[in-house]
Amino acid sequence: MSYHHTRKAPLRAVAAFAVVTAFAAGCTRGSEAGTASAVADTKAGCPAVLATAKTAVKAAEDVNAPWDGPTTGPKAATGKTIVYVAQSMTNPGVAGAADGVKEAAKAIGWTVRIIDGQGTPAGIQAALSQAVAVKPDGIVLSGFDPKSTAQQVAQANAAGIPLIGWHAVDAPGPSTDPKLFSNVTTKVQDVAKISADWIIGQSNGRAGVVVFTDASIPFAKGKSDLIEKELATCSDVKVLTTSNIPIADASNRTPQEVSALLSRFGTKWTSSVAINDLYFADAAPALRAAGKQGNGAPFNIGAGDGDPSAFQRVNSKQFQSATVPEPLSEQGWQMIDEFNRAFAGKPASGYVAPVHIATADNSGGKSSWDPSGYREAYRKLWGK
Fold first, then answer.
1. Sheet holding 81-86, edge to edge
2. N- or C-end of the chain: fewer Cβ atoms within 10 A?
3. Do residues 301 and 324 make contact, with C-beta atoms less than 8 angstroms apart?
């Protein structure tokens, strides 16, 4: 759902992302200097799982993978107006997707209006009420649960206005309850699996992992459960603990929690994974205070959604090694394409963007994940 959109991600360059590589680089190499048995010790206890994980990670790190989206669709409808209702435009994911919608609307020749819900339930309800009242051709529900605006959604449905969600419900594609023409997001199962595979691969199948989650949000808890299930496929990867910190309390509670975890686990803690990058923004000061290196263990990966501050930490190797970012601009273009299908009476495309892993090695110093090929592909589809 929209759990990762409930708080503005801090822009300070801090975090904990090097878990896996540091472990592989530090501990493994250290023991290689020892006896033959010490060298044997560096072999993973899950060779088959490790090989599969490394293959999956390599594919997810490819920045030149060809566009695999829709290749057929209706030509551009003319003169349409879309209203983009944002959970909060201070939320980097919501704002990034909005930028993609604006760019794509310009390309197809439509008008877009953005109404900011300001991050509060009342604000989001008022924003959607306003959106329905202007009788647009389509409305985007970005970063909030449509069930929190059930009355306004019912009004839009009754008026025949197609609704497209961005991270509005758990799964990508059309939704019957709430009634959405489509919901644009990556698959949580894919994001969870690749995050765990990264840890397995980076640690060479030997890691002590802390999982950061928000158990108060079913979607977040579901994501961390999936991550732990995949980590468990490697016998020498141990989940040391699952740290349950509500996203809303992350800035207050994470530093203290990280200090306690360091005291409790010491060097056994080699890797971390969080359901949202923002935990590493808050973990960084505590890791720094404990004398940890920004590019050392614990190596950290954020399983959503790759906001600019996460890229800043990854690129500068400051307590975050990797992130699994959403292709925000591409998803904005997809939303416009889905509306075009709705207006033509065609079904949704069914396209789901593949997962990607961004690291300092493949990000090119950028602050977002923007795959290539989709702009040209959609223009061609639309005849623009």
1. 111-116, 81-86, 138-142, 163-166, 180-184, 173-175
2. C
3. yes
Residue 5 reports pLDDT greater than 50: no
Helix (H, G, I), strand (E, B) or coil at 310: helix
Segment among 4-18, 183-197, 261-275, 312-326 with least mean pLDDT: 4-18
Phi, psi of 356 (to 5 degrees): -135, 145
The DSSP element (H or E) to which 301 belongs, if any, is strand 299-302
Longest CA span, the chain: 75
Residues 347, 349: Cα–Cα separation, whole Å: 6
Average pLDDT over residues 26-44: 39
pLDDT tens across 65-112, in order? 999 999 999 999 999 999 999 999 998 899 999 999 999 999 999 999
Write down the pTM of the prediction: 0.87
Q: Where are the alpha helices (DSSP H) in the chain?
A: 19-23, 29-32, 36-41, 47-60, 92-108, 121-133, 150-158, 188-202, 218-231, 250-265, 278-289, 308-316, 328-343, 374-382
Which of 119-124's residues contact partners 24+ apart within 8 Å by CB, and which partners? Answer: 119/6, 119/8, 119/87, 119/88, 119/90, 119/91, 121/148, 124/85, 124/87, 124/148, 124/149
Strand-pair partners of 208: 238
Residue 269 has pLDDT above 60, yes or no: yes
Task: Report the C-alpha gap between 18 and 361 in whole angstroms.
Answer: 13
Burial degree of 32 (CB within 10 A; 0-12, 13-18, 19+): exposed
What's the average model confidence in pLDDT over 315-326?
98
